Amino acid sequence: MRVGFLGLGTVGQAVVRLLHEERERLAANGLALEPVRALVRDTARPRAVPAALELTADPARVLDAPDIDLVVEVMGGVEPATSYMLRALRAGRPVVTANKEAVAHRGKDLLEVAAEAGVPLRFEASVAGAIPIVRALKESLAGDRVTEIAGIVNGTSNYVLGLMEEGQDLEAAVRMARERGYAEPDPTRDLDGSDAACKLAILASIAFSARVRPEQVGTCGIQMVSREDLRWGREMGYRLKLLALARRTEAGIEAHVRPTFLPVSHPLAGVGGVTNALLVRGERCGDLVFQGPGAGGDATATAVVGDLLEIARRRLVPGAGALGAGAAEASATLGARVREGPYCTCRDQVEVVPPHRCVTAAYLHLEVADRPGVLAQVAGCLAAHQVSIAEALQKARGEGPVPVLFITHPSPWGALEAAVKEIAGLPVVARVAGLMAVLGR
Ligand SMILES: NC(=O)c1ccc[n+]([C@@H]2O[C@H](COP(=O)([O-])OP(=O)(O)OC[C@H]3O[C@@H](n4cnc5c(N)ncnc54)[C@H](OP(=O)(O)O)[C@@H]3O)[C@@H](O)[C@H]2O)c1
């Protein structure tokens, strides 16, 4: 089967190399996949791929060319990637993508068009790199009812938090992550939680069989986190992670991405570096933990190629599925061509709980005047919004503002934010230095 690429950057080149290096083994199993052509912006730029691959700046050379059977989309961004994928699917070409933004924002349209055209669309690489979580949720766990998914799905922010635990401040940690190749030149989407929100929207939609859109995910990044928060959290028996959490509750699906203190005994608390990890809780299967490289060309390429092979295998089984326009002839010689069934599993109508109603315990870090009665004023604001305090700690004494920490009992996030807004207006409060979620209280 002849493969056309939309994009040939880090992931695209790794996929081409993988297919090249494993070509004999794959061909021996009847799974010959030949990279033919790739759409790029700059055709003159040298690429670390076998020379036979043609580069083009014309999308039609991949999307409309009769010598392309399958399309791999690894260019990123919502547009024009989504339009190109829709065009390939309408033309009967299966598509494999690693693009979380396109799948999270436009997955519904993509899957509907794929179902209408009767061709597969696969996106394992769009979440958590090499970890086969999409297939696990869609297939292996389809018989159970998943009640919760908690994940560290952004390696860059996890790496930055690790450096901050070692004593770096946020700015220095981001700079070091960039120098070591673990952060993009502009890591905004990694640090502000929006990358993780796209991944959580995809995972929650599959796990709970109901569509969750990225804009419904309550999202807060690590920009407010200080190394002191990490140190004090540790002293209290917690580790801080940018946690993507979705759960089924009586009110509906709660989904949020927030800096979250996890008890050290939590299975995700010790996940360091750029590693991704997911904890899936099922009613019958209990807790399952998936862990591994969540990014990087070679690791992500394994997920892309896994999807390609799943599609290519249908060629070996008469009538086992759609193969796309270019492969239809081959399929006809093998037997009746059966259309791909709907791959979308978002069939249930379940409410997504608005972020302000999602319930969590919280850690609040304030800088306040060191005077009698200050804690009572802060406690009064929290109580006015029905937020009850589990612990209060003053971390220093002195003339200037001193840090005080509060751990609250679980409360709606909106109540916490409203209380914090009032607290920030108290004359005795110099600064609200941090508001984070706490799990396991
Ligand atoms: N990198 C990872 O570790 C990783 C992990 C999991 C998922 N992903 C996802 O995989 C996708 C690709 O990531 P990547 O890191 O490989 O990106 P990348 O290195 O920036 O490569 C993007 C490629 O797409 C091409 N491209 C972008 N916009 C284009 C346009 N409008 N027209 C034509 N070509 C265009 C670029 O062409 P030029 O080369 O000419 O600029 C480049 O070849 C993204 O959706 C990303 O989120 C990446």
What does the model show?
It is built from 15 helices and 17 strands. The protein has helices at 10-21, 23-28, 60-63, 81-90, 100-117, 133-140, 155-165, 170-179, 188-191, 194-207, 227-235, 297-313, 328-334, 374-384, 413-424, and strands at 2-6, 34-39, 54-56, 70-73, 95-97, 121-122, 146-152, 218-219, 238-249, 252-263, 275-282, 286-293, 359-368, 389-394, 402-408, 411-412, 429-438. Strands 7, 8, 9, 10, 11, 12, 13, 14, 15, 16 and 17 form an eleven-stranded mixed β-sheet that branches. The chain has a six-stranded parallel β-sheet with strand order 3-2-1-4-5-6, sandwiched between helices. The radius of gyration is 24 Å and the shape is elongated. Mean pLDDT is 92; it is low at 320-338. NADP nicotinamide-adenine-dinucleotide phosphate binds at residues 7-12, 39-42, 45, 74-76, 80, 98-100, 125, 129, 295-296, 300.
Number of separate domains: 3
The count of β-strands is 17
| Percentage of β-strand residues | 15-25%
CATH topology of the largest domain: Rossmann fold
Measured on Cα atoms, how large is the radius of gyration?
A: 24 Å
CATH homologous superfamily designation of the largest domain: NAD(P)-binding Rossmann-like Domain
CATH structural class of the largest domain:
Alpha Beta
Secondary-structure-based class equals alpha/beta
For this structure, the quaternary state is single chain
**Tell me, what's the shape?**
elongated
**Percent helix range:** 25-40%
Separation, N- and C-terminal Cα atoms: 53 Å
At CATH's second level, what is the architecture of the largest domain? 3-Layer(aba) Sandwich
Q: Which small compounds were modeled alongside the protein?
A: NADP nicotinamide-adenine-dinucleotide phosphate
The low-pLDDT segments are: 320-338
Mean pLDDT: 92
Largest sheet: 11 strands, mixed
Q: Treating each run of at least 4 consecutive H or I residues as one helix, how many helices?
A: 15
